[in-house]
Write a structure and sequence with these properties.
four-stranded parallel sheet, 42% helix, 11 helices
Length: 285
């Protein structure tokens, strides 16, 4: 998923002279975009610096480092607007260092364009235009915005539904246009405590809240019953899609994305001790 947006961001930056040979690429990420940046930087000969938060799983940390990137972790417990948050850390590093390019996935509109060019057309073609609902979680907003814009350009009646972890501010903002204070949630890579520039709520038809427990229970069910071992954000997407399916009163084609691998969360989502410590009951034996 994130490889697509990173490729588009790199391509556009290189075309416009914003990213040049020998430069360093810096990216704030909860992990997956960071790994994609590290991978593509290695392929194209750039140095990579990834800033992240302590919430990032140890498997994602290891994968970022495996590509040769430098990883900087912000102190725990910081709000997103704190100067030392991982998001602001990346911006400051790019500002202070010549020859550094900030991927800025949260506000860079080349992010949703990446999905407009790839995921949207794939869904339309693979469903032969029969898709009625698209369901996706959001952090930068790139997936729901870019994919949704493409699909609605093909058929304005397609419903785009944002799956949002309980504790994120997106649901309340969609309902009331009010900014609220985020609360703790455990699912990685989705939800936010601020509104990114890439998130276009004009594309969103509804927002479904999903708890950590519902997300992780769905992950375990997918692994045990379907042979699909996925990450928490994929569990969140699937749970939300099932709720829509259960409410349909006429035939529909609901599309969601299993956007993350479960092997990145063996120390968390698939670790009974971690689940117990966080009072999560997955209910699958």
């Amino acid at each position: 998923m994130k490889d697509r947006i990173v490729k588009n961001i790199f391509d556009k930056a290189e075309q416009n002279g914003l990213l040049q040979p020998g430069w360093t690429v810096v990216a704030a990420s909860s992990g997956n975009t960071g790994a994609a940046v590290a991978m593509l930087a290695a392929m194209r000969g750039y140095k990579a610096v990834i800033t992240t938060s302590p919430k990032c799983s140890e498997e994602k940390v290891a994968s970022i480092k495996a590509y040769g990137a430098e990883l900087i972790m912000s102190p725990p417990g910081l709000s997103e607007d704190h100067p030392e948050s991982y998001m602001n850390m990346a911006k400051q590093l790019a500002k202070e260092n010549a020859g550094w390019f900030d991927v800025n996935q949260y506000d860079n509109l080349d992010n949703p364009e990446g999905h407009f060019r790839t995921l949207g057309p794939e869904i339309w073609e693979q469903t032969v235009g029969r898709v009625t609902h698209f369901v996706a979680g959001g952090s930068t907003g790139g997936t729901i915005t870019g994919t949704g814009k493409f699909l609605k350009a093909k058929n304005p009646n397609i419903k785009c539904v944002l799956a949002d972890p309980m504790g994120s501010i997106f649901h309340e903002y969609f309902m009331s246009q009010k900014l609220t204070k985020p609360k703790k949630f455990l699912v990685e890579g989705v939800g936010k405590g601020s509104i990114p520039g890439c998130m276009d709520f004009g594309v969103v038809d509804d927002v479904i809240q999903v708890t950590d427990e519902q997300s992780f229970q769905t992950c375990h069910r997918l692994a045990r019953m379907e042979g699909l071992m996925v990450g928490g954000s994929a569990g969140l997407n699937t749970w939300a899609a099932i709720q829509i399916a259960n409410q349909l009163e006429e035939p529909g084609v609901i599309v969601t994305v299993l956007c993350d691998l479960g092997v990145k969360y063996l120390s968390k989502v698939y670790n009974d001790k971690w689940l117990e410590e966080n009072n999560i009951i997955h209910g699958i034996k």
